[in-house]
Amino acid sequence: MPHPSSRISGISPSGKDGWEVHFAALSRRQKGEDILMLSVGDHDFDTPSETVEACVTAVRSGHHHYTQLPGLPRLREAMAKVATEATGVATTADEVLATPGGQSALYAAVQATLDPGDHAVVVAPYYATYPGTFRAAGADFTVVEARAEDGFQPDAKAVEAAVRPETRAILVNTPNNPTGAVYTRETLEGIAEICCAHDLWLYSDEVYWTLTGGSRRHLSPRALPGMKERTLVINSLSKSHGMTGWRIGWLTGPADLIRLAVNLNLVSTYGLNDFVSRAAIEALENRYGVDEIAARYAARREIFLAEMRGFNAVTVRGSEGGMYAMLDIRTVEPDCERFAWRLLEAEKVAVMPGSSFGEAAAGHIRISLCQPDALLKEAATRLRRFISAYPGENKARAAS
Ligand SMILES: Cc1ncc(COP(=O)(O)O)c(C=O)c1O
């Protein structure tokens, strides 16, 4: 065949991608082994039935046609209303671009603001698609690790040290995947100051904004002084409304930038699916599932962490929101990948090694809370048993 473009070849350079444990576990489970899958972040429950019914009604009512490129007007209105709630900043429909999922909103944000050769600073640990999204734009990026010892809150000084003359943007994600850290006001103020001082865009990935628990509430950096005009918020119905497979999300930003970004929808999707858009309108306007899903994850987080607290061998880091808990297992085994493989073999529990998400998360395991309470309890029991009997030189320390 003729040559593919270097752009497409460069998005995901071949080799290890960090998902090896997950896919090995998945294959074994599909062959009938009783493996507890705590490795992947997709809801274990279906989309709320009201949303499903709204979609069925829309299909039956003949909503089978092209829609406006930036989204149906009522959809944009509904998204703007939720953006107002999520970010604490009054938002109008022309500040919103409907996209097929949060990932597509992130892609639009990066494409709309970076030229080839431009540079961005990305806070790690991060969601696995981030590097490829920058590579797809021909942009360079520097990873700044948020430290485990700081509860995975990024250090503004370290972020600023990575800014170069060609830097155009910073990317943060709160509540965070994989760490579950919910960024504090102080953290976000530090990052906002850098954006204002260096005239940078801030991409703020807030797809988990409803999934917080305890005392740490979600704060959007868009609400901070001087940030509305430079913040591009990535949002989605995937997590908050239980709609991962429907592929619907949105980008919120200054109306002038959104107007330009509509052209991306022209050349890529040519607008969203008609009946999915109409179901999404109903879901957004009526908050279908939002409170129940948030309460469910808050309860699961508590159930799992309660099993882990008081177990000296592991330290809980981050784990304040989102769909994941993060356990520091370094006193048991510094090599988290080896730990994850051994856990799978010994106890048939699949988790993600933290190293899959960058250096800062090495020595940790990420636990997905996308399983029923009883299963999470069972997983915690197996994990404790496994650690207490951990083979090798660290056994004595692990059992203490
Ligand atoms: C941090 C983060 N951002 C964005 C996404 C993309 O979500 P979606 O494209 O399903 O809206 C995900 C999905 O897991 C995520 O974890």
CATH superfamily of the largest domain: Type I PLP-dependent aspartate aminotransferase-like (Major domain)
Bound molecules: pyridoxal-5'-phosphate
Rounded to an integer in angstroms, the radius of gyration calculated over CA atoms is 21 Å
Instruction: State the CATH architecture of the largest domain.
Output: 3-Layer(aba) Sandwich
**Share in β-strands:** 5-15%
Instruction: Name the overall outline.
Output: globular
Specify the number of helices: 14
CATH third-tier fold name of the largest domain: Aspartate Aminotransferase, domain 2
Looking across the biggest beta sheet, what order are the strands in? 2-8-7-6-5-3-4
The count of strands amounts to 13
Task: Please give the CATH class of the largest domain.
Answer: Alpha Beta
The average pLDDT is: 95
Order of helices and strands: HHEHHEHEHEHEHEEEHHHEEHEEEHH
- Largest pleated sheet: 7 strands, mixed
Helix content: 40-55%
Features:
seven-stranded mixed β-sheet, 2 domains, 40% helix, single chain, binds pyridoxal-5'-phosphate, alpha/beta, 13 strands, Aspartate Aminotransferase, domain 2, four-stranded antiparallel β-sheet, 14% strand, globular, 14 helices, Aspartate Aminotransferase, domain 1, 400 residues
